[in-house]
Amino acid sequence: MNIVCLDLEGVLVPEIWIAFSEATGIPELRRTTRDEPDYDKLMNFRLDILKEHGLGLKEIQDTIATIDPLPGAKEFLDELRSLTQTIIISDTFEQFAAPLMKKLGMPTIMCNTLEVADNGEITGFRMRCEKSKLTTVKALQSIGYDTIASGDSFNDLAMIQASKAGFLFRSTEQIKKDYPEYPAFEEYNDLLNAIKGVL
Question: Long-range pairs for 79-82 at CB < 8 Å and ≥24 separation?
């Protein structure tokens, strides 16, 4: 019994925080998990910047409404889901992911949640569980699934390493150099063929 576990941002949709950085003209918000391995540190850094600029959930959701899946992502996901069970495991938040899931045909996603005040200020965030990607993959394995994982960032490496097969997709040159044991792909067809090869 196989199940494919995919990252979301950078793999199926553009990086939300980079899009928001461009929309607001705040370059510091371009930092992502490709740059900062410590997710708590990264999110607290982002929340501080939002507070400083008086920005909240509505402004981010307005940007997300303009984001479409990466070209070819929905077709890739549709074909993959016709072959095997597939879930998205992301460190993003329900409040960000919901509109994007509609555009991707409502795949299953496991992600986190934001704490939002009545005035729309994002006051904090709640991770679904510790080391959420690795923990989720281990939980799936504990109920009889063989996991196949793919992602692009530091926070994907643990689930890739723990899976029976793991692939980097549109990752950074540094990550590809540091982890040469994982095949790295740039095109959906190549990733799809690699996954088919281990199903």
Answer: 79/192, 80/4, 80/192, 80/195, 81/107
**Catalytic residue IDs:** 7, 9
Q: Which domains does the chain have, with CATH numbers?
A: 2-12+70-111+128-198 (3.40.50.1000)
User: To the nearest whole number, what is the mean pLDDT of the chain?
Assistant: 96
- At residue 82, φ and ψ (nearest 5 deg) are -80, -15
- pTM greater than 0.90 (yes/no): yes
Average pLDDT over residues 35-44: 90
Quick one: which H or E segment has residue 151? strand 146-151
DSSP character at residue 127: -
Cα 105-132-93 angle, rounded to 5 deg:
50
